[in-house]
Amino acid sequence: PTSLSTLLLEKRVAEALLARSALRGKDYDLADSQVVRRGSSRLPDGIPFVGGLRQAIEAKEGVPVTETWWITEITSVQTCIARYRLVGGTAHSELLLAGHLAELFGLRVWDRRTPQQAKAEHDRAAELDHHLSVVHVFDRWHAPADRYRAEFCALRERTRDPAGLTAVVEELTGRQVAGADPTLRADVHAGLDKVLGYLNMTEWYEWSVHWPDGLSDHEQALADLVDALRTDLRTALTRRLVDPATR
Questions:
Q1: What confidence tens digit (pLDDT) does each residue in 195-228 have?
Q2: Can you tell me whether residue 109 is helix, strand or coil?
Q3: In this structure, how many other beta carbons lie within 10 angstroms of the beta carbon of residue 119?
Q4: What is the pLDDT, as a whole number, of residue 215?
Q5: Does the pLDDT of residue 108 top 60, yes or no?
Q6: What does the domain layout of the chain look like in residue ranges?
Q7: Residue 197 — φ and ψ, nearest 5°?
Q8: Residue 127, CA distances (Å) to 95, 122, 132, 138, 216 in order
Q9: Are 64 and 58 in contact (CB under 8 A)?
Q10: Measured between alpha carbons, how far is 171 from 143 in angstroms, rounded to an integer?
């Protein structure tokens, strides 16, 4: 496409496709009839989200559509397709495959592809589906360790200020921290770094042991490891509070 209006229409079609695959409760929430992007969402943030994607999700959910920061044009799907046909070069685009349009909009689309072109696009789509399925499997296997890493990294982040450091140590040990201790933060960081190091090494070892059919065993092994690491960290910090000379 060479015209701005056609590029904007392409953007709208892409947003409609992405909005269709976005999941409420995972990628976004509805609060007071407004679409709110979740922090762990796969959706883009910033202008890419408020510039049209959120509006596409609002249209899907049937809630009031907010104003967009981008120039928009109201048109019919048929006009959009016709404009692409006139521009040329999009009859074989993976985004605008006849099958995709027929499924998304319920249209009867005239497919101008040759049998060879249709087969080539079908093969590419199959390769993409396989790639996405593999990525999804990897994400599931990485998820347990990622959650634990996020937990321990959040603890480390909280120790940047004295009040947060005291709160973290008291949560981990169940003991009160008396007075300022200039070396306590370094000891806490060393303990958390040790935990993260063991977690990273064990994740890959357990993966090699349980792949590809033992995901539940992989998750349980990591859960047992993290329980043991929490206990070791709690014991070390408690000993450190009782007798600073043991650091």
A1: 999 999 999 899 899 988 999 999 999 999 999 9
A2: coil
A3: 11
A4: 92
A5: no
A6: 4-112, 132-246
A7: -65, -45
A8: 15, 9, 9, 17, 28
A9: yes
A10: 25
Rg of the chain on CA atoms, in Å: 26
Tens digits of residue pLDDT in 4-20: 677 777 777 777 787 88
Residue 235 scores a pLDDT above 70: yes
Report the greatest alpha carbon distance in the chain: 80
**Where do runs of H (alpha helix) occur along the chain?**
4-21, 47-48, 54-61, 77-87, 98-105, 115-158, 162-173, 184-210, 215-242
Q: Quick check: 145 pLDDT over 90?
A: yes
Give the tokens for residue 121. 């696009």
With the C-alpha atoms ordered 186, 192, 198, 203, is the resulting torsion angle positive or negative? Answer: negative
User: What's the rounded Cα separation, in Å, for the pair 97 and 119?
Assistant: 12
- Considering the chain, what percentage of its residues have pLDDT values greater than 70? 74
Q: What is the pTM of this model?
A: 0.49
